[in-house]
Amino acid sequence: MAYSEDHIALAAEYALGTLDADERALVETMLIVDPGFLALVHAWEHKLAPLHQMVSSVEPPAGVWNRIAAGMAQMEKETPPVPANDTGKDAVHAIDPVTLEMTSALEGRTPAAPAAMPELASEPAVADTISASAPPDLKSTEQSAFAGAPAVSPPAKGKSGSGFGVVMGAIAALLAAIAGLQIFHPSTLPAALRPKPEVRTVEVKIPPPPVAAQWVAALQSDARDPGFILTVDAASRRYTVRRVGPPPAAGKSYELWIVPGKYGEPRSIGVIDGEFTASGALAGVDAAAVNNSIYAVTVEAKGGSPSGKPTAQPLWAGKLYESVPAK
User: Fold this and answer.
1) Which residues are listed as membrane-spanning (predicted)?
2) Residues 305, 267: contact at Cβ < 8 Å?
3) Span 223-264, pLDDT tens digits
4) Which of 217, 306, 188 has its CA nearest to residue 253?
5) pTM score, two decimals?
6) Angle, nearest 10°, between helix axes 21-33 and 35-48?
């Protein structure tokens, strides 16, 4: 099938990947129903394939990373610091005297008296509350335990909240950069990060081909019994001839001829081998000539007439008639 310049340009743009979504859907539909157009697209892909070797990888512009760094710095300035937990100032971790003695015994030394807690001295209300609420037999134990407990410093105020905001900002900026590259320069990304092509399934209903007319001729030597039955398909002009009578004698062959008009020159269209013989020898003959010619069979030497002309009188002849009309 001959394609116009628009079809050729459309196939080239599809191979390059420059069509929009609607145009690609149209081309993909044509690829399903038109094998010739599919071959045209494959030819363009083959021609354009060397261009991939000529293009080197492209690094993102330096401005992209500068903008990411500036955005991270700005987010760090704008993120308020998270206040440290002040409850550690009031927490008291007592050391179990039994555990301290066991540890010292295992190490072979005398347990040293732990330093007093300045925090408890500055807040007598806490100590008084503990002493007042504890049972009498436990007051002395608790007071000695608290008196010998080491001081616990409150946790230092850091920038954990601010650091988390910076990390999240960096991740968001990186995702935005990847999204931009997926849209404008997908070839610079690894294969795992490239956008997946959209696949559409289009159902195209192709009507069945029209039924061509069938023509038939009975080639006979008299009005009683035919020797051959000739059938011709009007669309393809392919014929099938069936031998009804006996096979040819040894060293002989039946040869089929087409005789155009009343005084036309006979033309061989093939040797009849076996009971059924099919051939496309009528493909180059005009349709009107196929329908209006006389068909004849002669007995020739094995393999057909060597001169291309009949060497004997035809023994069977007939004319085509339409047996099945076209639909």
Assistant:
1) 163-184
2) no
3) 677 889 999 988 888 999 999 888 999 999 999 999 887 667
4) 306
5) 0.38
6) 120
